[in-house]
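Hey Z.,

So I finally got round to the copper (II) ion thing we talked about over coffee. Here's the setup:
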Amino acid sequence: MLSRRALLVSAAAAAAVRPATPSAQTAPAPDSIESARSATILQLQRRMIEVNGKPASVFGIRQPDSSSGIITEVGKRFSVRLQNNIDQPSLIHWHGLTPPWRQDGVPGISAPPIPPGGSADYDFPLRFGGTFWMHSHQGLQEQSLMLAPLIIHDDRNRPRDQDVVLILNDFSFTPPEEIFAGLKKSGSMPNMAARAPQMASATGMTPTGAAAAPDLNDVKYDAFLANDRTLADPEVVKVEPGGHVLLRVINGSSMSNYHLDLGQLKGELIAVDGFRTASVIASRFPIAVAQRLDIRLELPREPTAYPVLAVLEGDRRQTGIVLAAGRAAIARIADTTGTTSAALTLDLERRLHAAVPLRPRKADRVHTLNLTGDMARYIWSINNIAWNKDVPPLPIAKGERVELVMINQTRMPHPMHLHGHEFQVVEIDGKRFSGAVRDTVLVTPGRRVVIAFDANNPGFWAFHCHLLYHLDAGMFTTLRYV
Ligand SMILES: [Cu+2]
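And the result:
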């Protein structure tokens, strides 16, 4: 029997050749039995939920005890055996974590997908705590809910706090491949026909023109889910009157940005994308696709039910959960609001300040990335290049301070995500500031957002728009350094 240390060394040696070892093993080798014993098992599976009174077949990422995703602690290792129990290849990205690049879960970049019946092992230290999530980076599986929370407890968890996780999703009964085909074939989707002419002119538009009329929500969804449920039958979370809640909101939607609405409660935002910020107190917070919000709530003493809602941007539809403090009547909440919400802005982003900013340093390298697209043909790109495997990675070198200047030349907002590194928002529209440290930043139409990061995790990394169909249509590039 090999020691754990020897196993890790042998795993590391194997990783140099074929990392994250996807294998279609029927009889696991003794080594893998041993490592599986110390690892958390996560299973990719099919499951059924009910949406709008109809059964829906979706994916899930669950432990054998059926808990979704992982709750762990900072300082521990992320030690996971991922088993693919669905009938198609898959690979899971640990969104916001900074693993060795071979364990980052992007097919074709970090590792090959895990075949049906196969498994892959992951093992790396957890450098920081916070609210993260995991999702498939394979094809369009994320739209079918191949995602789960990844919560890393740290000192932000005070003993009196009750953790409440709220994961938001957009849902369609139309298979994602059909949704994407519909977007590609402009005119076939009801809204696309009317929009196509103005979108054609969007290519190469000036920032002023882009800012004039944002174009939102290019997929029409059947429902918006909060922890798998709609407001027709929302999750009701029992909380204590006068109690303290740490609300961890994860926007796991494929294409939808929201305004989180705490109603009569005021919340204290303490972290975005896992990373602590100076507190911001409000009852409404924007949350773009893939982003997270950690919000402390102090509940009043009287028994009351508090809806926590997410209103789709530029729309009236909403979803949410209910925090029930004591014996409180729970009123039915409509799934639409009275008025159409505004588009998300960068107003909150401008106010956010990292609790622990990057060490001030002049950039060694700056890349300018114009976010570009041709809405009429539904091609999305960076510097007018729709990604394919022949596009060269952006050059950077180990040890550099890198800045990425993103200029959105389209009419759609793009939540841009960097893999393998946390970054800091350091400029919006020409104004430098010490903004939030995070992993996904929204760049709204016509805006210029600059992020900085330290090239301290060598490898081959993805950088892309997190809107699923934009990513698939080419708003994606890579960084590579060793
Ligand atoms: Cu996009």
